[in-house]
Amino acid sequence: MLISLHRLFEHDLADGSLEQWLLVPRTLIGLVATKIAAHWLIACLPLILVAPLLALQYGLSNDATLCLLITLLLGTPTLALLGALGAALTLGMRGQVLQALIVLPMSIPPLVFACSAVSASQQGLPAGPALNLLGACLSLATFLCPWATAAALRLALE
Q1: Is the pTM of this model over 0.85?
Q2: DSSP assignment letter at 27
């Protein structure tokens, strides 16, 4: 997912549509959230749809497969929101190393919680605490990232 994130707002900046976003009577936060949702549908939804087949390939139990799907449904939007923030902060810069340095530390907690939930489910332990923490990460990212991304885009246009 990180490979394609640097282009999330790049074409909009190049063709001038990002400036038009600021002139539209709608809020920039809503437009950013729509763009992030579209990116999630294109980049992450196919992964979620293929996950049960991959779980069968790796011999996961039904409980672990269900837990995997839940963690993907909670974790991929979180990663998309964090990646959009990183893309907005590094908009107009060449190279994606800075974006990786910004996004990767923020994406480690959701990845750890998702892995521990699936691992606990495989071992027959309750996965609820890790799923709760993953849901908290999604709630925090849903609340903060569109606002921060919109602010970063305003700064990039100045």
Answers
A1: yes
A2: -
- Compute, in degrees rounded to 10, the torsion defined by CA atoms 88, 80, 33, 14: 40
Measured at the CA of 104, the angle between CA 111 and CA 55, to 5 degrees, comes to 30
Letter for the amino acid at 125? Answer: L
If one counts the domains in the chain, the total is 1
Residues 6 or more apart whose Cβ sits within 8 Å of residue 139: none
Domain that holds residue 96: 2-157
Distances (CA, A) of 155 to 25, 57, 58, 89: 19, 46, 45, 9
Closest of 78, 72, 56 to residue 118, by C-alpha: 72
Three-class secondary structure of residue 61 per DSSP: coil
Quote the CA–CA distance of 12 and 58 in Å, as a whole number.
Answer: 40
pLDDT tens-digit series, residues 46-100: 999 999 999 999 999 999 999 999 999 999 999 999 999 999 988 877 767 888 8
Query: Is residue 59 left, alpha or beta, with left meaning phi > 0 and alpha meaning psi from -120 to 50?
Result: left
pLDDT band for position 9 (cuts 50, 70, 90): confident
